[in-house]
Amino acid sequence: MKVRTRFAPSPTGYLHIGGARTALFSWLYAKKMGGDFILRIEDTDRERSTQASVDAIMDGMKWLDLDFDEGPIYQTDRFDRYKEVIQQLLDQGDAYHCYCSKEELETLRDSQWAAKQKPRYDARCFGREDIPEGIEPVVRFRNPQDGTVIFDDQVRGHIEISNNELDDLIIARSDGTPTYNLTVVVDDLDMEITHVIRGDDHINNTPRQINIIRALGKEPPIYAHVPMILGDDGKRLSKRHGAVGVMQYRDDGYLPDAVINYLVRLGWSHGDQEVFSREEMQQLFLLDDVNKSASTFNTEKLQWLNQHYIKEMPVDEVAKHLQWHFDDQDIDVTNGPATTEVIDALKERAKTLKELTASARYFYMDFDAYDEKAEKKQFKEPTVAILQALYDGLSEVNEWDLEPIHAVIVQTCEDLDLKLGKVGPPLRVAVTGTAMSPSLDVTLKLIGKERSLRRINNAIAYLKDKFA
RNA sequence: GUCCCCAUCGUCUAGCGGUUAGGACAUUGCCCUUUCACGGCAGUAACCGGGGUUCAAGUCCCCGUGGGGACGCCA
Hints:
Strand 9 (195-199), helix 6 (206-215) and strand 10 form a beta-alpha-beta unit. The protein has a 3-stranded parallel beta sheet, with helices on one face. The longest helix is centred in the C-terminal third of the chain and has 18 residues, at 449-466. By secondary structure, the chain is mainly alpha-helical. It has helices at 17-32, 51-64, 79-92, 102-114, 180-190, 206-215, 246-251, 256-264, 278-284, 299-312, 315-328, 339-346, 353-359, 361-364, 372-378, 383-395, 402-416, 420-432, 440-447, 449-466, and strands spanning 4-7, 36-41, 70-74, 95-98, 138-141, 148-153, 157-162, 170-172, 195-199, 222-226, 229-230, 295-296. The structure holds one RNA strand of 75 nucleotides.
């Protein structure tokens, strides 16, 4: 049988990092097994579902390059089908109408809580003869009273839960719309999902869902509950942990491949290997190798991977992702060096594309102030003479390239009888405004002759004025 | 509170009865170096506790403890 997995987010916000990993695992498993990956939008809660969220989720999937074979399928398009199943359950006697008010249920829960019991609906409407006037009832699934539900989770192993822990859950609201536990079951069955890979916050729902499936006379799919991702404080990842929306990682300068690689190693491993291409992941991913325990998100490791990908990916590939950041930081790259050259020059000193872009600024735009510390350290009174000598030497260079530029710098050192350490740093500050840049020949080459000379000149003027 | 789940360096993890408990990120030191980085080398650092089972336990079982999750006319 062909493997079919799915990712089934509810559109109540952006695609967050935990959801992305669940999607990744489902996607990988389908790829690994030569199966299909389906995207389903669980939008039965019409109050909270929004089109904007659907778009955000799709954007996230697209950015991460997690493609799906079918979908997106919207549950709101399938209400007729759910109604049909609810009716079937009603007809079979596996479901019943419940007329309890929300207040009544709340009182029940409170009293059970007070009695230190697990809050459960007491099935008081089951078999009820009198039909109250003017109340639109909900429909409840009649959960089996005895026995246990057993399933073998592909990551958690054998799980067993007694039916008397479960209660008669609502499968249709009073307005007739179906609820989650019903719709997942119907959809997974109808779409012939073979492996349900989802967050382990659903582990408690699984027995209920299995009972519904059995009542429908079907066999449940295989389940794999993947552990949660926690924030630095050990709590479930949420907004207060900062960047949790996948697109925020793009904005912060991460490469999708780095995020994917980071995510795949959170809860899954293959020996000691840390770096995986998408092809390798698809080839090696096994549910058996997924961890049982929750893991903590660690931005530093993500950064390390991100830099790794910035360094290792083909430059023109990186350049595609980089353009967004140039636009974001209002840097016009049309009158400066090719971005691919800039990447080569800076990739070893940036952990993110955002940083890389920021430090590439002086290649394209003039700065209006020197870095305070750098200026203080490098711009002394004798610096004027050094810069002047460099200016003179550099203006003689015809072929503006690494070798000739380097030669001038070396020659200047000799002429002035100074060490490179006295000549290089001030030049760097003059030409970039900062104390940090790639090696000087590369820096000058990329800035360009005309622009370099002008900046040196400016620095000389600035210094003369300063020490006048 | 009740039920479910989880537990190896600070973090991600390897380990599937016998290991000097391995790797990676981070961190520390050294080397390289015109800056910042990259890189190289070295180091610090872990089996939650208690009982069993066994010749032998990080590995299996039980009990604690700690953490997470679920307990909705949310998904």
